[in-house]
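Hello,

Following up on my earlier ticket. Below are the two sequence lines again, exactly as submitted.
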Amino acid sequence: MFQDLLRKRDFYAGVLMTLLGIGVTFNATSYNLGTLMHMGPGMFPFILGIVLTFLGLLIFGTGVVTPLGEDEHILPKHKEWRGWACILLGPIMFIILGEFFGMVPATFSCVFVSAMGDRESTWKGSFLLAAGITFFGVLLFAYVLQVPFPMFRWGH
Amino acid sequence: MLSTALTDLWYGFGVALEPHNVMWCFIGVLVGNMVGVLPGMGPLATISILLPLTFGIKPVGAILMLSGVFYGAQYGGAICSILLNLPCHPPHAVTCLDGFPLTKQGRGGAALGITVISSFVGASWGITEMIFLSPILVRVALQFGPAEICSLMLLGLLAGSTLARGSPIKGVAMTVVGLLIGIVGSDIETGTPRFTFGIPNLFDGIEIVALALGLFGIAEFMKSINQLSEVDTKYTKVSFKDLRPTREEFRRSVPAMFRGTIIGSLCALIPGTGPTIASFVSYAVEKKISKTPEKFGTGMIEGVACPEASTHSSVQGDFIPTMSLGIPGDAVMALILGALMIQGIVPGPQLISEHPDIFWGLVASFWIGNIMLVVLNVPMIGLWVKLLTIPYKYLYPSALFFVAIGVYSTNNDMFQVGEVVVIGVIGYLLLLLDFHPAPILLGFVLGPRFEENFRRAMLISRGDVLVFIKHPISAVFVALCVILIGAQIYVRLRKPKVIEENIPLVGVAE
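Thanks for your patience. The regenerated structure is below:
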């Protein structure tokens, strides 16, 4: 019974929402609650926190009541760790290189790194794609849309 | 009433036909159609990615372009679902049922042609509805006090989250999460920073672009990476002259089109029932009244015409509460409303009188845009079909770049690119736990106004919570909320076999 519960999606969904709700409720009390007539900044989040806790418990409850489904896997069947990592690393590279070296390196690295996430990707293919996107991206954003973002810079 | 409506419409055409506005509308439709055709890019992702491009444009042009992007993307999605059997947007899931068999029989071109006509018919009716209903709604809504606005918003939020796909409880939970995300930042009345964790960049709140791109960009890419199999393009050779349906096909589709239009506009009137439900209902109806229901699913042209017409008429209908009351019915409308707010325009019943150029220009541009769609799609079908073959491995890295630079250009702030990454991870976790993130956006957009009106209502009533039932109009809205929840519980407990049989594909598409 408990083993089954630990495999259910709704169990985790419910627990997550309940915890979030409780967290919000407690955090809200650190702001001024005020009275119902003169509501302080804490009142609205306080109410929402309670509602969310209640909803979380409901989701948890339905998770307990419904029988274990066929495909109760939290993670999908094929775990795409490389894909996920590359998708997240792309924008992170954009932030770091953009902050210190400018738009061109940022764009290139963002596209290159994220393109490597595909299972069939090759160094050459990703390189060409990144180069192409960098060219058109710089053209569009730096020249046409005039985004204030230097193409190259050194340091902050 | 007719004469004022026509004068206003005339004025609207004047605004929409200004050269630069026509240009923005055209660019919107073109780019929206182009991106929407790409497999794996639904209208939500398309609009959120293109949203930052509109910041430099004047409000009227921006909103015309965005709505052009929206129906362009929708139509592009139809191409994708008919020719590839890949529904990128939930309403198109039913179009696949008969559209793809038609493609297999070599009539895919005719199905696309019928889709063009049906969507035009559906949209035209929806626009007409908008012209006449919006001013009436506004006149009523201007009488509303904070209590009425509050309970109306509550109804909108509940309907938007419970009638969408998936579990209604989870939908409501997502709406609450959205409301909470809307709270992040300084409190409007006292200036107290709330849920900012001491990070000064969060004092202004979370940017809607970052939220939308995290939830519908990064989270979606994480879900689809290496999951989209190589698309089967052997049926996709469609040229210009294939689009013409035969006389027989046309004769069968016309009544189906009109039935779909009516169903779509009825669905639009019920808050929260967007295009998805409209298309499923209309397909079921069409099957029921057909003389040969057993042939549905094997390539019946009615099965394409009816849902497409109803989707488009209900989409146009969804603009009515969005523009006239400031209450969006689904995530797409919430995004469009968010774009208006970024431009510094306060949504609500005063919008039509304060910014008639936006409202009537938008109405007129719907027609212009829909005609552009027809004109664009008929000769350019060959190009769209080529776009279908772009593999996902080239698509998502390019889209990620647009996400990053788009968010950066909103405020020229790298911190917000970081926000997108974090929101993307959270969004993917929520997807894994079977939460649909669309209601988050709904709650986020309505949240601040909901809180403001709630506080005001409480102040006026001297802290009496019963004020929401004491005012008659507000009581009606509250009653509707209760009925909505009651009906949900009733339906869940009774195991809706009938619905499941008629709607086999619910939840297939994201």
